[in-house]
Amino acid sequence: MTAPDPWAGILDPGETVLWQGRPDTRPQWAMLSPQRLTLGVVFIVAAALWGWQSAGLASAGGAMALLPWLAVPLLAVGLFNLAGHVLWDAFRRRCTWYTLTNRRAFIATDIPFRGKRLKSYPINRETILSFDESEPASIGFAFEPVPMKRSTRMKMVGFERIADGQTVFALMRGVQGKIERDFPIDPESLPR
Question: Pairing with 170, which of 48, 83, 132, 145 sits 20 to 30 Å away (CA)?
Fold first, then answer.
C-alpha cells in the first residue's frame, strides 16, 4: 500500500516540487534594538509601580481588589518588547515549512491558535526576487499589505533564513528562465 500524495489537489497538472526546506529556528538577538529595550523597561517599571501602589487599595476589597491585576497587561507589553518579540519570531519560524515548485513558492504554517495555513505565490518572469546572502540566507519574492493604525505598509514575503540559499535562488531563477523560454520576448516589442 502506498502513502497518499500530500500534494494531491494542491499542485496543478505538470507542476512538480523542486525544493523543500525549513527556516533556521535560532533566535535572532540582533533584532533587539535600543528603542524596544527602552520601551520594555519603561512598561515593566510602570507595571511594578502600578502593582505596588495599588496593592494598598486592594486591601479595601470589592472592585479595588482588581486594581493590582491591571499591571499584568503592562508587564506583558514590557516583556514582549524586552525580548519576547525575538522569541516569538523564532517560534513562528519553527512552525513554518517552505516548498518551491516549477511554478510557485509555498509557505505553510501551523501556529497554535491560528491553525494550519498554506499560501502560494506565483514565480514567473515578472516576479521580483531579492536575495540576502547572509548565513542563513533569505529570498524575497512577494509583498503583502500590513494594516497599520492610519495607513498600510508592505511587508516582504519569502523564504526566511534558509541554509541552502544559493541553490534555492538558482532554482527560482531557473523557474523564471523556463517560463521565459516558454513565452519568448521579442526584443523589438520592448520600449526604447
Answer: 145
Question: How many structural domains comprise the chain?
Answer: 2
C-alpha cell at 59: 486591601
What lies within 8 Å, CB to CB, of 130 at 6+ separation is 139, 140, 141, 156, 158
**Host domain of residue 46:** 29-91
User: By three-state DSSP, how is residue 71 classified?
Assistant: helix
* pLDDT more than 70, % of the chain: 85
Which tens digit of pLDDT belongs to each residue from 129-177? 999 988 899 999 999 998 888 888 999 999 999 998 999 999 999 999 8
- Each residue's pLDDT tens digit, 108-122: 999 888 889 999 999
What backbone torsions phi and psi does residue 28 show, to the nearest 5 degrees?
-95, 90
Please, are residues 136 and 165 in contact by the beta-carbon 8 Å criterion? yes
Query: 160 and 120, same structural domain?
Result: yes
| 38/95 Cα distance (integer angstroms) | 29
Rounded to 5, what percent of the chain is helix, strand, coil? 45, 25, 30
- Residues 67-94 pLDDT 10s: 777 888 888 888 888 888 888 889 999 9
Helix (H, G, I), strand (E, B) or coil at 122: strand
Q: Which amino acid is at 175?
A: V
User: Is this model's pTM higher than 0.85 or not?
Assistant: no
Rounded CA-CA distance 69/88 in Å is 24
